[in-house]
Design brief:
The protein has about 170 residues and is α+β, with helices and mostly antiparallel strands. About 25% of the residues lie in helices and about 35% in strands. The longest helix has 20 residues.
Length: about 170
């Protein structure tokens, strides 16, 4: 049975959904899996552009073939430990996705990935929450050699939606 792994965390007054995954792999290998277009495409999508400019176009290829790019601004890129990106949404500021990815390697060679997305609209939590559980589990499957296709969307949604509705429902001020 698939279970929800995302938790609510408040960072500088903003709610985030935060996930953790571990890999028996060096940090540079996990960094490549989440940043190199060919490796990224195995579990979620790919990107084009030149990150040196601070902007790339991301294509969510895991959701079908007629994919429109989403423009991301890279705010922090410190290989192999930290990546912070935000969608480019001049016209619809409420739809901006702010993503943070941090990697840390232990002395035993285990790399921990901590992934977070700002959750400024609690109404989307019931979809976004299960979505990131699904995609991060696809990453784990791809890196273990099991393949991302061993992970099935129907195991995540709607089964995990209630967890994220509760997690991001009304909360007292933090």
């Amino acid at each position: 049975m698939t279970s929800a792994t995302g938790r609510r965390e408040v960072r500088q007054g903003t709610s985030y959904v935060v996930y953790t995954r571990t890999f028996v792999a060096p940090i540079h290998d996990v960094w490549a899996a989440v940043t190199e277009p060919e490796r990224l495409e195995r579990w979620i999508g790919t990107w084009t552009g030149d990150p040196v400019t601070g902007e790339v176009d991301f294509y969510m290829t895991a959701e079908g073939e007629d994919v429109q790019p989403e423009r991301y601004r890279l705010e922090v890129c410190t290989p192999p430990t930290r990546l912070v990106a935000r969608t480019w949404a001049d016209e619809e500021p409420d739809t901006v996705w702010h993503l943070e990815l941090d990697l840390a390697e232990s002395e035993s060679g285990v790399t921990t990935l901590t992934f977070a997305q700002a959750m400024t609209d609690p109404d989307i939590a019931e979809n976004v929450g299960p979505g990131w559980d699904y995609y991060l589990d696809r990453l784990v499957g791809a890196e273990r050699g099991e393949g991302a296709d061993s992970v099935h969307w129907d195991d995540y949604y709607p089964a995990l939606a209630d967890h994220y509705r509760r997690e991001f429902g009304p909360h007292p001020a933090s």
